Amino acid sequence: MTNLLKLPLAELCADDGVLTTRYLAIGESQSLVAMVWAAWAFGLAIANQLLSQELARRASLPTDWPQCPKCHCRLRSKGLRPRQIQTLVGLVHFSRRVGRCRNGCKGLMVAPLDQELGLDLYQQTSQEVVKLGCLLAVFVPFDTATVLLKQLTGVNLNATTVWNWVQSLGMKAMEQLEQELALLNSGIEPSEEERSPELKQMPLIIGADGVMVPMRPLEKTPKGKTIWREVKVAILTRLGSRLSCTGKQISRLYHRRMVAILGDIDSLRPLLWLEALRQGLKTAECVVWISDGGRGFWRLYHECFANWAIAILDFYHAAQNLWKAAAAALDGRTTKARQWFKLVRHQLRHGESEQVIAQLAHAIEWSQFPKSVMNTLTNVHDYLHTHREHIKYKRFKEWGLPRGSGMVESACKWLIQQRFKGVGMRWSEDGFNHLLHLRLAFVNDRFDNLFLVSVNPSSTAKCDRLF
What we know:
Layout: H1 9-14, H2 17-28, H3 32-59, E1 76-87, E2 90-100, H4 112-117, H5 127-139, H6 142-153, H7 159-185, H8 197-201, E3 204-215, E4 227-243, E5 249-262, H9 265-278, E6 287-291, H10 295-305, E7 310-313, H11 315-330, H12 335-349, H13 353-366, H14 371-386, H15 393-398, H16 406-420, H17 429-443
Parallel strand pairs: 3-6, 6-7
Antiparallel strand pairs: 1-2, 3-4, 4-5
């Protein structure tokens, strides 16, 4: 390692004014908090020097120059050229050798050390800063992300820079998804994610819903009236249980994965099918589809999951429709309406769904209601009759399966509403999609994959950095 590590602390500080000042600040601190911050600043300064010295050491090593891609003549050194890059330990300055073609081929200059370090052309910020900035932007607005980044690391950036990072990485995530979909369309199914034996035994729960987001009416301008568009959201998770502090067995979701798209059901279908295969749709011991009464989502169930999954209609959505019948036939303001609704809701929950459907059929046959009431009763009856196999709630409870789609609604709130529906927020389609895919990458444990850097193992790598 460098000589910096071999120096005593006092001697190390004596040769550097910045280090001396920060070192003395530790001893002058009056509180633990001040002492920690001073030590933090001193540590960053030390790390910056270590990094600079190590880069200088690597730049001094002999370089095996590659061949010119135009004339195949071996390049030769043109001396050291300076470069600087922003890192988590501050702005680091270093020099490295650059080479040119001996025959003077125009437009060709390479820096093998840049290739070894995984630095791109004109890159000004190290990837760990980009990663942290994007991670903050996943949760908070861009302006807030820059404030937090400065507080955490001392790196001072503007919101536009973080926004540009999000657009670039979000586009990369979308391109990766398109590649996976292309493979699936060609008949190559994705590999299942690795899971523990305990997770494999848990039921796989799949649910879907929609949520509205505020969008700009025109690209590249915030002017105009807000347009509300729907985002389709799906969640895939394993249903387990745990003991509460009182010893009660309660349900818990494990290994949550989400899918979302700014589009219609047909746009969601391939994404959800891809993720379902990855989450073990074909190998899970039990698969459950749960959703409210949206026709599009049930069409999606019948087209993709009917052969694999048990279907459950959200209980609270079914009960809401029963209340519509009670309010129409008995006047929702009356005690009689509330009592009847309480009765049929209890019956529905405890395995008497056929009796509830029969009561609605009997009321329709009586035909003493006005036409508007008859239409409401008929719609509710047909709705429950269509889902008669999906409202066996007593049986579902005995099997340990959920009866409500709260997990889907919670996914919509966390994934979309908390980040995209803040005060005054309106999104362009590209801006929304790029940030959405970063949020999806984070919740699906694939965020780190977007920052994998290919580093050339030696200076003899191909000459692929031209500048």
